[in-house]
Design brief:
single chain, mainly alpha, 4 helices, rod-shaped
Length: 126
């Protein structure tokens, strides 16, 4: 003959508390996992952002440096052409030349300096 085992209210209450504790622990673990994932995602995003910013900064700096170098070279070439041709730049013209940083404009001025009869002709607008 089989004996019937009764659980009674204590065992049932114990089982309910055990399940609740398990659910609470799972929720806590899930929350901790989300927090850790968020922290790692933020850290990785910051690292990637910094790397991209550095790369863009280097590229921008390189481009600006090349443009500045071209402008400096063209200003020097203009002065050399004028010196070789015996032409002079007055202080206002020298200031205008020094204040120009656009290689395209300086290139135009350089071509004009080759044939200009004076600095005024080099700076003229067309």
């Amino acid at each position: 003959m089989e004996e019937k085992v009764t659980t009674g209210p204590y065992l049932s209450d114990f089982m309910n508390r055990l399940h609740q504790k398990s659910r609470d622990e799972m929720a806590k673990s899930r929350e901790q996992g989300l927090e850790q994932g968020l922290e790692q995602g933020i850290e990785q995003g910051i690292e990637q952002g910094i790397e991209q910013g550095i790369e863009q900064g280097i590229e921008q700096g390189r481009e600006e440096g090349l443009e500045r170098g071209r402008a400096d070279a063209l200003r020097t070439a203009i002065r050399q052409v004028f010196a070789a041709r015996g032409l002079l730049l007055n202080s206002k013209q020298e200031a205008r030349l020094n204040s120009c940083h656009d290689p395209d404009i300086l290139g135009e001025w350089h071509l004009r300096a080759l044939t200009a009869t004076s600095a005024i002709n080099m700076f003229r607008s067309e």
